[in-house]
Specification:
Blueprint lengths: L4 H20 L24 H10 L3 H16 L3 H17 L3 H15 L2 H16 L4 H21 L4 H14 L10 H12 L4 H14 L3 H15 L6 H17 L3 H14 L4 H19 L1
Length: 298
């Protein structure tokens, strides 16, 4: 069909208007090359265990790669679940030897998926915790913390009466909140407080909350009653010596922070006597008391 001159003029005008809307209708911000704005600034790199596994295997030398290939073959030839789980455990340990806790945890989780025992899920959660602490970047830490929580939830479902699983889960939420803005900072703390309400005068919970106050928030006044309670509980029931000695150590530090020299020295004398049968713990408190006295006499 042949267009008239008028029709061609209208068509050209429409094309020009469309081009103006596409290119100039919304003026883009004047940014330098490589500069990002808004929510696109510093986007977090996506990571997955499968991606990290492929990258890590590419960095192996020929001897290491041959060993992993052998283990992969043993896994493929396993005749039952238990045999396959043993090979996966060996792969997990091998990644630990290579200082890669995230991949070690990845295979520990595969063991748990096969065995479906609370112990296996707890080990997976603990290994992911190590991976979180050794994470190279925020993305890896977030991945490790979330996988740790998922593993611990499985352990809790299978063994709900084991308090340590619930404590570990709450602590991982505390850690996750430091690398994931979508997690409220108080979530893990509130979980621990709920446990404290449910299990009155529990040594594990009081030690956990006491450590957090002493080491994370440096609130020795809040930590002090927690360790006092542990020592009080030990007067009525059995508390493992390392745990009790740790409670004394932190309580001594609480008194030091208050410049309560007399009370701190009393506690030193108590724990030195208490630990006479454990040379390693005993000597550490003897040395600690001597150092404290020297500093006070300067």
């Amino acid at each position: 069909m042949k267009l008239s001159t008028a029709q061609i003029g209208v068509l050209v005008g429409c094309l020009a208007l469309l081009l103006l809307l596409l290119v100039g209708g919304k003026t883009a911000p004047n940014t330098k090359k490589g500069q990002e704005t808004g929510t696109e600034a510093n986007p977090e790199t996506f990571v997955s265990e499968e991606i990290l596994l492929a990258e890590a295997r590419n960095e192996l030398d020929s001897t290491q790669l041959a060993w992993f290939t052998t283990l992969d073959q043993q896994k493929a030839e396993a005749t039952d679940v238990l045999q396959e789980a043993e090979v996966l455990k060996l792969i997990s340990r091998t990644w630990i030897e290579n200082k890669n806790y995230l991949l070690s945890a990845y295979y520990a989780r595969k063991v748990a998926e096969l065995l479906q025992t609370p112990e296996a899920w707890s080990i997976a959660g603990t290994t992911y915790d190590y991976a979180y602490r050794s994470g190279k970047n925020n993305a890896e830490k977030k991945l490790a913390a979330r996988q740790a929580i998922a593993a611990l939830e499985e352990a809790i479902a299978l063994e709900p009466d084991t308090l340590q699983h619930a404590i570990n889960e709450a602590l991982m939420y505390v850690e996750l909140s430091t690398v994931d803005a979508s997690v409220m900072p108080m979530k893990g703390i509130m979980m621990l407080r709920d446990l404290d309400e449910k299990y009155k005068n529990n040594v594990l919970i009081n030690m956990t909350l006491g450590r957090m106050s002493a080491t994370r928030t440096k609130d020795m006044a809040k930590a002090k009653p927690r360790f006092e309670k542990v020592i009080s509980i030990a007067e009525k029931e059995y508390v493992p010596l390392p745990t009790l000695a740790e409670a004394y150590y932190y309580l001594i530090e609480c008194y030091k922070s208050e410049n309560q020299q007399v009370e701190a020295l009393k506690l030193y004398d108590q724990v030195i006597k208490l630990t006479e049968d454990d040379e390693r713990i005993h000597s550490s408190f003897v040395i600690g008391k001597q150092d404290y006295l020297q500093k006070q006499n300067k």
